[in-house]
């Protein structure tokens, strides 16, 4: 009963403080704004996918109807691949702000098609997007610091500590109740908008529960860290300076230092290099003897080695063979490129062990399926679908099947499942 009475008393005391009320209101409004902006971006992406998908289906049907051979149908027939956002994606835009989430592909060499989407300005991603994950990871700790840095020092400097603890059997319960009220109010300022807007925008209860757990863990961590400083002997101004410095180190300096170390440890490969190598291989094939293309192609695809020799200036199966060889020539760069991305992401996860804000950001992005792992899954989905397109056309081209429009009815449809 004593504990409950202490909490009720502190709740009345804290709620009467205008600065505290303003801080909670400001944090709640930031969460509402961040969620709304995130939903607006995800709605834009979803609408873009829906419109592009409908248009792509019409265009592909028109190309197939107008085709006179399979090679021409494969050349002009673009298919839309897309990464549909998860139900909770609006809470953390993550890699969807940087990596492609929609790409039109055709049967030509794939590497150039994929890495054409790498042409974005990396400076645009430096500041990050203002979404719910950003607020929880980077701004929430600042609010906890503002509310708790002088929770004890202000009372001590004013000489009110003896009066506050005179009638308390256990003086620490007074401060525990006050800290609990302040941290709980801060957590509610984040959780109420999450559940209200999250339910409104269709996020699943399971995702909301997991993200709520992340929020509460973050509040608990920063509350403990702030109290470890705030209940010391320093003045309130010193507490504020030390805690702000800790936030700068954990939220900015550690991630920056980690990025520099990761860039040095895993230099990676520029996607433009892969695209350039693939294009150079494809373009050079026009000036080489047909055998320079067909022999290595049949060596890696012996199932088509029985196909009739190419003895004319141009044949579609020769054309798609050197498109395939362009991708295979670029593969020694493409595989390390993707492996470097995975290694960088794994190292970033290790850096997150030293940077709670980064850890929280990655955790929410993982729940929202907007992390690097999800981006790599989409990349592999594109590659798998492109392989289906090739496998659909290769029997028609290398068996030199007579053209029939009906034969194109079995063209593979992109599926995200």
Descriptive notes:
- The protein is an all-alpha fold and 417 residues long.
- It is built from 15 helices and two strands.
- It has a two-stranded antiparallel sheet with strand order 1-2.
- The protein is elongated and about 95 Å long.
- The two termini are 54 Å apart.
- The relative contact order is 0.14.
Give structural attributes.
mainly alpha; two-stranded antiparallel sheet; 417 residues; 2 strands; elongated
In short:
The chain is mainly α. The protein has 15 helices and two strands. Strands 1-2 form a two-stranded antiparallel sheet.
> Which structural class do you get from the secondary structure elements?
mainly alpha
Strand content: under 5%
Return the string of H and E elements.
HHHEEHHHHHHHHHHHH
Strand order across the largest sheet: 1-2
Major beta-sheet overview: 2 strands, antiparallel
Helix content: 55-70%
Task: List unreliable stretches of 5+ residues.
Answer: 119-127
Tell me the number of strands.
Answer: 2
Distance between the termini: 54 Å
Shape: elongated
Report the radius of gyration as a whole number of Å. 29 Å
- Individual helix count: 15
Q: Tell me, rounded to a whole number, the average pLDDT.
A: 90
């Amino acid at each position: 009963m004593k504990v409950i009475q202490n909490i009720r008393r502190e709740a009345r005391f804290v709620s009467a403080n205008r600065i505290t009320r303003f801080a909670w209101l400001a944090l709640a409004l930031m969460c509402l704004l961040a969620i709304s902006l995130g939903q607006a971006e995800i709605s834009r992406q979803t609408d873009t996918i829906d419109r592009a998908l409908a248009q792509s289906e019409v265009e592909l049907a028109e190309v197939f109807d107008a085709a006179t051979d399979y090679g021409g149908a494969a050349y002009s027939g673009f298919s839309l691949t897309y990464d549909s956002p998860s139900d909770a994606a609006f809470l953390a835009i993550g890699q969807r702000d940087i990596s492609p989430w929609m790409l039109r592909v055709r049967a030509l060499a794939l590497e150039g098609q994929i890495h054409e989407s790498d042409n974005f300005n990396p400076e645009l991603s430096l500041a990050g997007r203002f979404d719910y994950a950003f607020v929880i990871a980077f701004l929430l700790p600042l609010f906890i610091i503002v509310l708790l840095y002088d929770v004890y020092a202000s009372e001590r400097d004013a000489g009110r500590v003896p009066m506050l603890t005179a009638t308390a059997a256990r003086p620490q319960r007074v401060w525990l109740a006050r800290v609990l009220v302040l941290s709980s109010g801060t957590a509610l300022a984040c959780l109420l908008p999450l559940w209200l807007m999250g339910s409104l925008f269709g996020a699943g209860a399971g995702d909301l529960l997991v993200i709520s757990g992340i929020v509460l863990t973050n509040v608990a961590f920063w509350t403990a860290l702030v109290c470890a400083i705030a209940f010391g002997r320093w003045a309130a101004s010193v507490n504020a300076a030390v805690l702000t410095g800790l936030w700068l180190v954990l939220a900015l300096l550690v991630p920056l230092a980690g990025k520099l170390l990761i860039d040095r440890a895993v230099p990676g490969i520029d996607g433009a290099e892969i695209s350039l190598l693939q294009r150079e291989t494809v373009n050079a094939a026009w000036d080489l003897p047909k055998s320079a293309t067909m022999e290595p192609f049949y060596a890696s695809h012996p199932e088509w080695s029985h196909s009739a020799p190419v003895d004319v200036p141009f044949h579609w199966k020769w054309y798609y063979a050197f498109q395939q060889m362009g991708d295979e020539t670029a593969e020694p760069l493409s595989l390390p490129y993707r492996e470097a991305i995975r290694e960088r992401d794994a190292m970033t996860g290790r850096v997150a062990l030293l940077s709670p804000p980064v850890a929280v950001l990655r955790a929410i992005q993982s729940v929202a399926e907007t992390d690097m792992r999800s981006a790599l899954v989409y990349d592999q989905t594109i590659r798998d679908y492109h392989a289906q397109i090739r496998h659909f056309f290769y029997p028609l081209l290398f068996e030199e099947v007579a053209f029939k429009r009906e034969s194109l009815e079995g063209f593979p449809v992109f599926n995200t499942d």
